[in-house]
Amino acid sequence: MSDALLPLLIAIPLLAAIFPLLLGLRFDRAGWPVAMATSLIVAGLAGRLAWAVSPASSGPQQFVHDLAGYPAPYGIELVGDGLSAILVVLISVVAVAVLISARTTGPDSNAFYSGLLLLTGGLLGMALTGDLFNLFVFLEIVGLVSYALIASSDDGRAAYGALKYLFLGTTGASLYLIGVGYALVATGTLNMGDMATELAAVGYSDPLVQAAFGFMLIGFMLKIAIFPLHTWQPDAYTYAPDTVSAFISALVSTTAAYALIRIAYDVFTVEFFAANPLITDAVLLVASISIVVGSLLALLQTDLKRVFAYSSVAQFGMILAAIGLQSETALFGAIIHLVGHGLMKATLFMGAGVLSSAYGAQTVADYAGLAKRAPITSGMMAVAGLALVGIPPSVGTLGKWFIALGAVEEGSWGVAAVIFISTLLTLTYIGRLLEALYFTQPAATDDDTGVAGDADGGSIVADGGDTEGSTAGDGITAIATERIVVVVVLAISTVALFGAADPLAAMLDPVFGRFFQ
Amino acid sequence: MSSDPADNDTGGTITRQRPVYTESQVIMTTVKAVIPFVLTYGLFITFHGTGSPGGGFQGGALIASVVLMMAFAFGIESTREWLSNALVVGLGTVGVAIFAGIALVPMALGENFLEYTAYYPVLGDILGLKEYEFVKYGMEAVEIGGIALIVAGVLMGLFFALAAGVTPPNDTTPDTESAADTGAASNTNTMTGDIDTEGANK
Fold first, then answer.
1. Taking every annotated instance into account, which residue ranges of this chain make up the domain Na+/H+ antiporter MnhB subunit-related protein (chain B) (predicted)?
2. What DSSP letter does each residue of A324-384 carry, written as one string?
């Protein structure tokens, strides 16, 4: 009964989210063990799902679970196929990684761990649902919990960032809901599979259908943070606690982009794009602008977390471009880039978290000479950064290569050129970081004020934890070893996934067969 | 708190105005007279909802409003102490557990998530219900045991959290533990999570 995995994957984290609160009445530190145990169970189930839908197992490569036993067009169904399984595995792996490093960094309250579990459950729900309205419900769960988690820092600016995200994120979800409403009026169904056939019957050039797609697209562009709808993202990522920015930057926009892929190709299908060249061109144009402007803005930032945040705007622009290209190659690249970007950003944000806990480094200038003092973390950040540029061998290479190849195959030379320019710009802003890390002598006075000025420096780093040799010097706050191990493992995974193109292609083959009949 | 919030005479600086509780015979008598009816109406709405107008959400909100009225009449702090933090947290979390339990047991019986008719072979004879009636009473159970409890608990928790206000993070609180909790509580008002951290301060 592999289809039973689907509701379990969503229900277990949501149910487990109550235990940190309930046990918190009696125990102060109940949150972390509960969250960790749940995440490991979820990771195990995710592995089983991935195995079950992969071609390596003999079973069917798509699972459907009808909630409450009501069949598809009437009831809500959960669907697991190769594409959603990849996302589910990514979500569960990043959740475990983030929790490992959260043990010592906090925010150490039981409510925080409840929130993290709710967020995991919501993301898994978005990845597994086969119903457009149900997707909205999970989108809202993810949104609300993200706002709360971002604000869980003591910093007042985090509350401001969360409020901004709340306004814009809720607007995005509402626009998506309006789109779903239009589609419901046009077709009378909410089930994704059923709507695909109904939309074909209504006709793709029907203004109602076009409006439905337009609203959904704009709603998701807000959630994914595509320029010019990205304004919530830099503040949210920068001022959130390090743990939260790693989790959210790696997963929240990623899952929204997955949902957009699902809607664009499974519900509206390539014929919709073929019938509406204007919409296709608009998607490509907006995506190209997002790539270039996001990279340029990243280049202009001084705060490192802000550099990474704007870099996400550019990277997701690339994924949106791949969605608009309607090429099998480009979409394959987009999915690889979704996974790769999630892992690379998790590495970079966690690495930045380690260095800011240890040395109070916030701006790129603060990173001057840190490679000598923290060689492992700096090295891994360099690996993930170069992967983000697309230097082979890395998962970043694969993603960009396939998207660019798809653009060339489709004759969209403009998009291919934009991707090339963005690679150079990415190299520039990652180069700034590398230059600071490896080739700049730390200015002693600057460094001291940087550490002393950060009042929270001592309180972030908590109990025990073995001191890593490289970070022990100069009376600097000790960092728990496991945080560095997580960064190393994630960085290595971004390199190791370079060899994963074939298994991923085999896994996505049945899905792409449906997308591009 | 660095300064007494109720003290309005600190010229120049703006202090947070905490509404001071005033005992009012009119309000207390009115609330005493009204709450039995509101509670009954809340339960009435809760217990309807599958086959008739009503529902767990609306009913839960009405039940929570009983506590809100008592807080206005008899003072927020004393109502909070009377109700106890554990009860508020318990309502929300146990509601989720009941809901999830009702949904997950059919899976253990080999049926789909939330499939109420899966209970029929097990409980049909004991309860003397027909198979189709399990759908109705299953929904009723989710509504009463799940949604009404969750909504009542969360609304009470949000009310008490908002009434307690936000302690500025730069505050010179003696122990860092409660400062961290306040930071979380003040910012997680969008979810149920604030209930316990909030109460931990008091």
1. 27-156
2. HHT-HHHHHHHHHHHHHHHHHHHHHHHHHHHHHHHH---BGGGGTTHHHHSHHHHHHHHHH
The pLDDT-based confidence of B196 (bands split at 50, 70, 90) is very low
The mean pLDDT value for A49-54 works out to 89
The answer to whether position A464 is within a domain reads yes
Among A341-355, B67-81, B125-139, where is mean pLDDT lowest? B125-139
Minimum mean pLDDT range among A69-83, A234-248, B169-183: B169-183
Whether residue A334 is contained in a domain is answered as: yes
**8 Å CB contact of A156 and B169:** yes
Residues of chain A found within 8 Å of residue B186, distances taken between Cβ atoms: 159
pLDDT band for position A228 (cuts 50, 70, 90): confident
**How confident is the model at residue A467, as a pLDDT?**
40
Give the domain range for residue A317. 278-512
Question: What ipTM is given for this predicted complex?
Answer: 0.82
Best interface-test mutation with B: which of A28, A154, A157, A456 has the largest number of B CBs within 10 A? A154
Give the gap in angstroms from C-alpha B25 to the nearest C-alpha of chain A: 36
Range B136-144 average pLDDT: 88
CB spacing of B107 vs A145 below 8 angstroms: no
> Which pLDDT does position A267 carry in this prediction?
92
List the single best residue of A9, A14, A18, A153 to mutate versus B (max B Cβ within 10 A).
A18
Cis peptide before A107 (omega within 30 of 0): yes
Indicate yes or no: pTM above 0.90. Answer: no
On average, the pLDDT of chain B sits at 76
Smallest CA–CA distance from B90 into chain A, residue: A22
pLDDT at A219 over 90: yes
**Do the Cβ atoms of A141 and A125 come closer than 8 Å?**
yes
Within-domain flag for A437: yes
Q: How many CB atoms lie within 10 A of CB A178?
A: 17
Of B90, B185, B191, the CB nearest to A115: B191
Contact of A435 with A309, CB cutoff 8 Å: no
User: Which residue type sits at B115?
Assistant: E
Q: In this predicted model, what pLDDT tens digit does every residue of A77-107 receive, in sequence order?
A: 999 988 999 999 999 999 999 999 888 876 7
How many contacts does A have with B, using Cβ atoms within 8 A? Answer: 118
Task: Give the chain A residue whose CA is nearest to the CA of B103.
Answer: A68
Query: Chain B: residue nearest A16 by CA?
Result: B97
> Which residue of chain A has the CA closest to B169?
A154
For residue A234, which of A174, A303, A287, A291 has the smallest C-alpha distance? A303
Cα separation, A307 vs B117, whole angstroms: 54
Number of domains in chain A: 1
Per the CB < 8 A criterion, the answer to whether A13 and A120 are in contact is yes
Chain B residue whose CA is closest to A163: B187
Q: What are the chain A neighbours of B187 within 8 Å (beta carbons)?
A: 148, 151-153, 158-159, 162
CB–CB of B196 and A459 under 8 A? Answer: no
A259: in domain? no
